[in-house]
Structures are given as C-alpha cells and as structure tokens.
Design brief:
about 170 residues; two-stranded antiparallel ribbon; 7 strands
C-alpha cells in the first residue's frame, strides 16, 4: 500500500477477503506507535505493470482478455459488497500465474485498496488525499475532486487500465 493502512482500511480488506481475484489478507500487526502493517499473500510474479514495462510478460490478445475478465470479476464483487476500488491501474494488479500464449494459465488479483471507499454518491469526505489523475474519470476531474468515484467512474478507470496493458505498461498521458 502506498500509505500506512488504518483500521478503517483493514476492515475493507476483511470485507473483500473471500474472492479469488482479490489479494488475501491474513491479518494485521499494529506497533506501539499505532502503525498498521497488513499481512497478505505474496504474488510469485509481482506487479502486472512492471512485468509489462520490463517486457518480462508479453501477453497475447486472448491472454489480456482473460486477465481483464479476472479484474472485472473482482470489480463486480467489490461493487456487490458496496465498495469502489478507486485506484484501478496495472500496478495494482498482482500476477500469480502467467503464460503469454495460454489464456487458461494466467491468474491475477487486485490489490492496494488504500483509496477504496463505500460506493455511495456523496461529497468528498476528509479521508481523500490523493486522486489518481491519469486513471480518473472526466467527471471527477471536472468536479475538482469534490465527487467520489462511482461504478461508472470505475468502469472508465478499467478502460484506462486496459489501454495501459495493451501499450505494454505505459503510464497514461506519460
């Protein structure tokens, strides 16, 4: 995670812990200063974006489709649990199995719920400190960040993630 998780975020992980395409969180440890460290499973191949950028993984179109469907499956589960990931990007997808030519040999999981929040249309709350501009839906940018993500803005971010994967891990607008 990009920032130290709070107990609030730990609850998100616990709520989403039972899906095959979402990172498993086994628990957390809190030190004397109140800093929380999540205990999560390890992805054998690391981040999707890094593999693409370093050309360690050059998936075929069919493999990409399977990976996208796995991410979408996790998104649908999140929304069903009343959650929005709010930071979809290739660097927040972990690769557990990969094969550039065999779609059925690929397995990914969504991670980094640091910006995740309940899926309720409302004005921005005080917990929001970062907006992932490159992946952000236009309506969020036009509102100067005052609006929260919704399922629709999450779909936009998924489209940007798909572009990022098809462009071999290039950062949008970068």
């Amino acid at each position: 995670m990009s920032e130290a998780p709070t107990k609030y975020k730990v609850l998100f992980y616990n709520k989403l812990n039972n899906h095959q395409h979402i990172i498993n969180t086994f628990g957390f440890v809190e030190n004397n200063f109140g800093t929380i460290t999540l205990l999560q499973e390890r992805a054998s191949h690391g981040h999707f974006q890094e593999l693409l950028k370093k050309k360690l993984f050059e998936p075929s179109s069919m493999v990409l489709i399977v990976i996208f469907l796995q991410i979408i499956d996790a998104m649908v589960y999140n929304v069903g649990k009343g959650m929005i990931h709010d930071d979809l990007r290739c660097s927040n997808v972990l690769v557990f199995q990969m094969d550039s030519s065999k779609p059925e040999e690929n397995f990914v999981k969504l991670t980094n719920f640091a910006l995740a929040r309940p899926n309720k249309p409302s004005l921005l709350d005080d917990r929001r400190s970062t907006i992932p501009v490159e992946y952000c839906a236009p309506e969020i940018l036009r509102s100067a960040g005052r609006l929260n993500y919704s399922e629709l803005s999450e779909i936009y971010s998924m489209g940007v993630l798909m572009w990022e994967a098809c462009s071999q891990g290039h950062t949008p607008y970068g």
